[in-house]
Amino acid sequence: MRMRPTLSWTLTGELSPGTTDMGPVTDVLSSGGVLVLSGAGLSTESGIPDYRGEGGSLSRHTPMTYQDFTASAQARRRYWARSHLGWRTFGRARPNTGHRAVAAFARHGLLSGVITQNVDGLHQAAGSEDVVELHGSLDRVVCLSCGAFSPRHALATRLEEANPGFEPVAAAINPDGDADLTDEQVRDFRVVSCAVCDGILKPDVVFFGESVPPQRVERCRTMVREASALLVLGSSLTVMSGLRFVRQAAEAGRPVLIINRDPTRGDQHAVTRVALPLGAALTAIADRLGVAVRG
């Protein structure tokens, strides 16, 4: 029986409801050397929903797994039809004040780097430079046969040509760029193959059930070792890919601070969790530090 990936966690025991006091985060940032770990909650104010917050996509949508994608041509047709439509909206998303605040902190020398679980590229669009995309990026495509990479916009053009008039109405767009469509809406969608070897194309993202490349994990572990503290922004820390860095920081005696409206799987390792909307919280912290957030 195929194991399904961890998509949720159950809160056990008593955890703090969170605070609105931004003093601890401000104090830690003012000393510099802080590593940011960001999740889907940071991009909700850009119009990209998260997985697990209020109204999160997991309440109605099970993400594609690597095992299903590689095993079934039908699953790949469904994925690419939905992702092709979702990309039209996803690709137009713009950084919000939270992304811009993170970039401003970096410009002022307060950050040692950024690890993001997001695949939307919005940190870079806001001006952040030292960003590790833990789960990859939707703006790249990789061939599973020959390993060739290509830009997503080139694939979008090929899919448009292969599917003229494909204009279904989606019920919603999800954090992975996947649009909610029915089986009937995707039935006749034509998938294109690798232009180099005719192999299977996959977005250059880590699907649920797929492992983050070991070299990328080790790079992140090094970043955690070299940081003065870890600041988690908008992640529930449900999946181990992000939680392991929180545990590593805590075990090494690095302060872990979290800004997330809801409880997270890493709260027990944190010195504080600020339960406020990210854009407003980060802008207020920037004001306290005298850091200008560019619009």
Features:
295 residues, alpha/beta, three-stranded antiparallel β-sheet, 10 helices, 9 strands
Give a description of the structure.
By secondary structure, this protein is an alpha/beta fold. The chain has helices at 23-30, 66-71, 73-90, 97-107, 122-126, 152-162, 183-186, 214-226, 240-251, 278-289, and strands at 34-38, 111-116, 131-133, 136-143, 149-151, 201-205, 229-233, 256-259, 272-274. The strands form 2 sheets. Strands 3-2-1-7-8-9 form a 6-stranded parallel sheet, sandwiched between helices. It has a 3-stranded antiparallel sheet with strand order 5-4-6. Helix 5 (122-126) links the parallel strand 2 and strand 3. The chain is elongated, with a radius of gyration of 19 Å. The N and C termini lie far apart (51 Å). Residues 1-7 and 55-60 have low confidence and may be disordered.
Entry summary:
By secondary structure, the chain is of the alpha/beta class. The chain has helices spanning 23-30, 66-71, 73-90, 97-107, 122-126, 152-162, 183-186, 214-226, 240-251, 278-289, and strands at 34-38, 111-116, 131-133, 136-143, 149-151, 201-205, 229-233, 256-259, 272-274. It has 10 helices and 9 strands.
Share of helix, binned: 25-40%
- H/E topology pattern: HEHHHEHEEEHHEHEHEEH
Average of the residue pLDDT scores: 89
Please outline the major beta sheet: 6 strands, parallel
Q: N-to-C terminal Cα separation, in Å?
A: 51 Å
Strand order of the largest sheet: 3-2-1-7-8-9
Overall geometry: elongated
In percent terms, what proportion of residues is strand?
Answer: 5-15%
Number of DSSP E strands: 9
What's the alpha carbon Rg, rounded to whole Å?
19 Å
Low-confidence region ranges: 1-7, 55-60
Helix count from the secondary structure assignment: 10
Based on secondary structure, the structural category is alpha/beta
